[in-house]
Structure formats: structure tokens, C-alpha cells
């Protein structure tokens, strides 16, 4: 019997239809197929092109962890702000109720004037810059179409990003000249509130150092007093009198214990000493931690960098060093000029009116475009 090509083709078609019908009966549920397709898409996304590197793989694998941290930080921001207000207020209460009467009674008029003037100036600077840092918008790139130059497109917002603009996962939007997201402010630190953030850190550090140094002797006296109170509490309240003591009438009738005198301190004395110790420990701890952060940001400002710029510039230096080239930060105008641009100092009087006094002046530039100087020169002549 001879087989024609047509009969062979019909046989293959019938076999295929039977195989497909059997496979259709054993097909997985729709929800399970969706999960399988999503998992395949995730795996394929790790090698979507030749530009994929270890950073992309790392971000993809740890994306759930980053999302959880961002979510918790976003909702706990208000808690951190309340904690700052409560701790600062507690130090103020101790200063006004406990320390101020002590200063007025023991210090000379010159020292009293110094403590009152410096303390209130420092307090005003802390409160002003903290409020401005928390309430001032860090700056956002425009969402409408414009002719502004941009360096990349945000993969989260799908919007053009100007130079030094980065996406904040907690705020869920791009920030101009982003430094970092500060949970203690419940706000991002960007172009328009970077100066307020640094000034708050600086004056809070100065305030903590001031309290720690001026209260050192009070702390030592309070600690010694509490130790003395502790030894007094360990003494027995009375000594039992028995035997001949009762017969010769050492005690009144009906009393069997010889009572020791009442303690020489009160509950108010104990609380005053404890509050002084609390104030000194808190201000010393915060002064050391916040002082280190302030010094670090001061170094970055002197270099014309933000915290994110430092990581980017470090990678660029390594990349160009492999090619035998030297990378120069295009936003570094020189140490003095960097500080003048950052603080908004345009003339000599501004060192007082804009640095040593509360000032709400805007920063230099709009945060969208930046002046690049290949040669260091005075950006703002002072």
C-alpha cells in the first residue's frame, strides 16, 4: 500500500489534535499559571539587556526589603518628629525649672547675662531651623513638558531627571539635589531645605555641648548626692531595744525600737538630682552623635557634594582611574565658594544676617540647572 503525502499530513494533524486535547485536560489552574508567568517575568528581568550589572540584580532581589523599610519609615515619621519635640521640651523644662533658679542664686551678673543671652539665642536658632527644615519642600522637578536639560529618566516616576536629582522611595517622588530622607524631620533633605537641615544639626550640637559643659559640675554633684541618698536608704529605720534596756527606761512605755532621725533629703531633692543627670546624659549623647553627623556634612559641603553625590563621584573616580584619567567634581567651586553658595552669602553682612540670625532666604539657583566652572573662581565675590 502506497502512502501519499496528503495522508501523512492528515495523520500528523490528527495526532496533534489528540495531544492538544489531552494537554488541555491537564492544564494548570489560571491563578497558578499567572503566578508562574510572573515568576518567569521576574527571572527574565534580571537579564533583560547587556547593561545589567550586580546593582540591578541586588535591587531586584532586595526590592521587598527596601519596600518594607520605606513603608515603615513613612508611617513612623510623625513618631520621630514627636520624639524630637518631647525630648527637647524635657530639656527646656529642666533648664527653666531646675537650672535657672540655681544660676540666678549662685552666678555673678555677668555670667547670668551670658547664660540667658546665649541660651535663648541657641534655642531660637534650633526651633526656627527645625521648623523650616521639616515644613519646607525640598524641591521637585517639573511634571509638565519643558525645555530644561535633564541627564536621565527616573525608572520609578518615568519622568526626566535634572542633574543631582534622585528618587526617594519614602516620599515616592524625585527630589532636587537630594541628600537623604531624614526620619527625624519626616521630610526629604533637598535643594530648598538643605541649609535648614544643616543649621539645625549645627545649632542643636552647639546647644548640647553647651549644656554638657556648663552642667558637668552639677552632674557630678547630683550623682554624688544620689549615691549618698542610696546609702542612707540602706540604714535600718530603728534598733530593737531588749533586756536591760527596757528595765532601765531607755524608751517610753510601749515602744520597743529606737528610731533613727528622718532622712535629710526630700522627694523633691531626689527628683532634681535625677533630672540633672538625665539632662547631662541626654545632651552629651546627642552632642557626640549629632556632632559627628554635622562634621560629616560639613566636609561634604566643603567638597560641593551631597551624600548621594559622594557615592556617585566615588564610582566615577574608580571608573576613570581604570582608564588612567582623573575625575573632578563639576559642582566643586572651591571650599569658600561652596560655603557661600550653600549658605547664600552674597555680601559680608550676610554672615551675620543669614548665618548667625534666623533667615528664610532661598538657596542659590533653582535646583534644575547648575553652573559648572572648570577653573575655580569666586562664584559670589565677597
Q: Please identify the structural class as seen in this structure.
A: mainly alpha
Number of strands: 8
Count up the helices.
12
Radius of gyration: 35 Å
Unreliable segments of 5+ consecutive residues: 241-251
Protein name: Palmitoyltransferase
Keywords: Acyltransferase, Membrane, Transferase, Transmembrane, Transmembrane helix
Main location: membrane
Membrane topology: Multi-pass membrane protein
Overview of the structural elements:
With 382 residues, this protein is mainly α. 19% of the residues are buried. The strands form four sheets. Strands 1-2 form a two-stranded antiparallel ribbon. A two-stranded antiparallel ribbon has the order 3-4. It has twelve helices and eight strands.
Topology (elements, then pairings):
Blueprint: H1 5-25, H2 30-45, H3 54-61, H4 63-106, H5 109-135, E1 152-153, E2 160-161, E3 166-168, E4 173-175, E5 180-182, E6 187-189, H6 194-214, H7 216-234, E7 238-240, H8 244-247, E8 257-259, H9 267-302, H10 307-322, H11 335-343, H12 350-356
Antiparallel strand pairs: 1-2, 3-4, 5-6, 7-8
Helix pairs in contact: 4-9, 5-6, 6-9, 7-9
Keywords: Acyltransferase, Membrane, Transferase, Transmembrane, Transmembrane helix
Catalytic activity: L-cysteinyl-[protein] + hexadecanoyl-CoA = S-hexadecanoyl-L-cysteinyl-[protein] + CoA
Main location: membrane
Amino acid at each position: 500500500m502506497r502512502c501519499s503525502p496528503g495522508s501523512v499530513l492528515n495523520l500528523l494533524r490528527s495526532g496533534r489534535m489528540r495531544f492538544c486535547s489531552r494537554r488541555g485536560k491537564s492544564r494548570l489552574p489560571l491563578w497558578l499559571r499567572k503566578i508562574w508567568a510572573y515568576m518567569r517575568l521576574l527571572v527574565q528581568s534580571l537579564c533583560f539587556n547587556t547593561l545589567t550589572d550586580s546593582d540591578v540584580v541586588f535591587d531586584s532581589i532586595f526590592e521587598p526589603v527596601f519596600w518594607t523599610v520605606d513603608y515603615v519609615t513613612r508611617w513612623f515619621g510623625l513618631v520621630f518628629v514627636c520624639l524630637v519635640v518631647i525630648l527637647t521640651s524635657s530639656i527646656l523644662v529642666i533648664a527653666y525649672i531646675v537650672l535657672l533658679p540655681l544660676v540666678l542664686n549662685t552666678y555673678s551678673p555677668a555670667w547670668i547675662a551670658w547664660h540667658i543671652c546665649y541660651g535663648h539665642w541657641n534655642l531660637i536658632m534650633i526651633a526656627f531651623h527645625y521648623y523650616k527644615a521639616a515644613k519646607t519642600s525640598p524641591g521637585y522637578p517639573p511634571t509638565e513638558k519643558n525645555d530644561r536639560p535633564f541627564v536621565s529618566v527616573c525608572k520609578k516616576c518615568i519622568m526626566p531627571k535634572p542633574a543631582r536629582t534622585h528618587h526617594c522611595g519614602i516620599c515616592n517622588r524625585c527630589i532636587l539635589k537630594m541628600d537623604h530622607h531624614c526620619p527625624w524631620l519626616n521630610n526629604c533633605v533637598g535643594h530648598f531645605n538643605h541649609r535648614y537641615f544643616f543649621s539645625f544639626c549645627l545649632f542643636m550640637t552647639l546647644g548640647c555641648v553647651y549644656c554638657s559643659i556648663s552642667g558637668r559640675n552639677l552632674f557630678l554633684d547630683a550623682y554624688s548626692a544620689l549615691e549618698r541618698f542610696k546609702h542612707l536608704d540602706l540604714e535600718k529605720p530603728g534598733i530593737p531595744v531588749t533586756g536591760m534596756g527596757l528595765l532601765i527606761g531607755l524608751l517610753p512605755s510601749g515602744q520597743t525600737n529606737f528610731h533613727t532621725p528622718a532622712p535629710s533629703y526630700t522627694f523633691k531633692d531626689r527628683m532634681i538630682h535625677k533630672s540633672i543627670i538625665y539632662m547631662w546624659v541626654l545632651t552629651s549623647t546627642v552632642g557626640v552623635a549629632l556632632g559627628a553627623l554635622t562634621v560629616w556634612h560639613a566636609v561634604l559641603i566643603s567638597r560641593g557634594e551631597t551624600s548621594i553625590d559622594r557615592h556617585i563621584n566615588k564610582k566615577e573616580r574608580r571608573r576613570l582611574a581604570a582608564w588612567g584619567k582623573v575625575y573632578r567634581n563639576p559642582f566643586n567651586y572651591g571650599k569658600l565658594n561652596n560655603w557661600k553658595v550653600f549658605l547664600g552669602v552674597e555680601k559680608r553682612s550676610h554672615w551675620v544676617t543669614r548665618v548667625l540670625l534666623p533667615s528664610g532666604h532661598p538657596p542659590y539657583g533653582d535646583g534644575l540647572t547648575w553652573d559648572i566652572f572648570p577653573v575655580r573662581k569666586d562664584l559670589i565675590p565677597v
